[in-house]
Amino acid sequence: MDWDVDELLAEPTTEVEQDYSSLCTQWLNERMAPELLPFAEDVVTRVTERLRAQLETLQSSIGTANATGYRSVLIQIELERIKFVLRSYLRTRLSKIDDYGQYIQANPSVLLNLSSTERQYLLRHQQLLHRHYMTSFLRELPMKMNKLDDTIGRTSMVAAPDMDSPVFCMVNETIEENLRVAENEYVTLDRGDILLLKYSAIANYVRAGAVSLI
C-alpha cells in the first residue's frame, strides 16, 4: 500500500474537525512523549463545550422518535469516541503528574505546562504523599535522612522523565536545518518522513507542532 503523504497531512476542513484532529495529535504526543507537554487548554475547552451541548441535545430528545433514530445512534457513537480520546489525554497527564510530581514542582518552566486544575491536583497529591511517608517511616529517621529530594552519591531521589528515550515521529513541516542526533551524525527532516529518534533531539519541534509523535 502506497502512502499518500499529502492526504495523511491534509488539514481538516471545518473547525470541529480541526479541533478533533488537534485533540488527537495532542493525545498521541502526550502518550508518547516522556515529558509533560503544555496543556492544550483552548482545544480541550472547545471540545468539552461541544460535548456538553451535544449531550444536552440528546438528553432533551429522550422519549421522542429522534432518540432511537439512525442519526441519533451515530451521534452517540461519535460522542463516545471523542470522550474516550479526551479522557485518555487527561488521564495520561495525571499519570505523569503522579510519577514526576517532585520534578514538576521543582521546575517552574515545567509547572507552567499544567492547567490550573492540574496544579491543584499536583499540590494536593504531593501533600498527601509527603504526609503518608512521614507517618509511615520518615519520622523515624534522622533529620538529615528524611528528605525526599536528596542527591546522595550523585543519584537524585527525584524521578525525572527520560528525555533521551526513543520515539517514533512524523514530520509535519520540512525543517531546513539538518538535525544533529549524535556526534558527527545528522538527519534531514522532510515533510512526511517517519523516523525513530531520541525525544530530546526533536522535543522543541514537537512542542512547536512541526513534528508529531506516533
UniProtKB/TrEMBL annotation:
Pfam families: Sld5, SLD5_C. Belongs to the GINS4/SLD5 family. The keyword Nucleotide-binding does not apply. The GINS complex plays an essential role in the initiation of DNA replication. GO terms for cellular component: GINS complex. Gene3D superfamilies: 1.20.58.1030, 3.40.5.60. Its main location: nucleus. Residues 75-133 form the GINS subunit domain. This is DNA replication complex GINS protein SLD5.
